[in-house]
Amino acid sequence: xxxxxxxxxxxxxxxxxxxxxxxxxxxxxxxxxxxxxxxxxxxxxxxxxxxxxxxxxxxxxxxxxxxxxxxxxxxxxxxxxxxxxxxxxxxxxxxxxxxxxxxxxxxxxxxxxxxxxxxxxxxxxxxxxxxxxxxxxxxxxxxxxxxxxxxxxxxxxxxxxxxxxxxxxxxxxxxxxxxxxxxxxxxxxxxxxxxxxxxxxxxxxxxxxxxxxxxxxxxxxxxxxxxxxxxxxxxxxxxxxxxxxxxxxxxxxxxxxxxxxxxxxxxxxxxxxxxxxxxxxxxxxxxxxxxxxxxxxxxxxxxxxxxxxxxxxxxxxxxxxxxxxxxxxxxxxxxxxxxxxxxxxx
Length: 346
What we know:
Layout: H1 16-32, H2 51-61, E1 66-71, H3 74-83, E2 88-90, H4 92-100, H5 110-121, E3 130-133, H6 141-154, E4 158-161, H7 181-197, E5 203-208, H8 211-214, H9 216-228, E6 233-236, H10 242-252, E7 258-260, H11 272-278, E8 282-285, H12 290-307, H13 318-324, H14 327-336
Parallel strand pairs: 1-2, 1-8, 2-3, 3-4, 4-5, 5-6, 7-8
């Protein structure tokens, strides 16, 4: 039975100065031992030095359920890293909302997604691998191949590519339309060929959104064809029941499947424990940070408008926030290089 990786929670409590000094010392050790196994993953062989290799190792050599919180920017990714998750997922919906202020309707293009993924994937050289949304691949086979190349160079560990039309929408909205099976498979072929051309371990996740328009049987047919073309993982979007999710895992076993859990979306709530028992290998929570961020920001702005204050808790100082964002690492870099920018503290 797969085991769920338990995160080691970063609380940020305690004496701020002592905590910062400890973080700086830890960061200095990391600078000296950059090839050491990352603490987030248990044992990972030293040759697994890329996010893609780490993710492939986790899929092939462990039986854990890889739980990925959805992140959409640098701060949400930093929180996920500090909380100790073994992997992260860059949500297309969250990226579109935060970067462009738009709904998830295929508005974000390759440049937007690649730039955001590049930043997130490289926040921590020993951090958790990043799976990123690649939507439809943003065009025909040539563009799909370019997208895969750019994700590889950005350090992305895995991506999913889907069968919606180019004017796509969030997988949990009604009215989705998909391309024919052969067009979908051409996207998978192009992605697989690009992966092989660049000799990359990047994890290719074949996603189908055909359930609404064409039914479960067509989804299974498409996923089996993608599997036969060499996709590493499968993803059926928008399960309408737990029974359907279990049936899909059973039908495609032992091929690893990814479950996208969007609360209040098309799929009933499935917990990590339930997903583990069903046999899923990866579980992403696409809205895990963007929705709480929206509710917190909205409540804060309403208080500011009503009461004239923000109401930030006394323990959350500017320095505390910057510590979440790698302040100690930056200070350690300066000190290791002989700099004196922080000789008088910070």
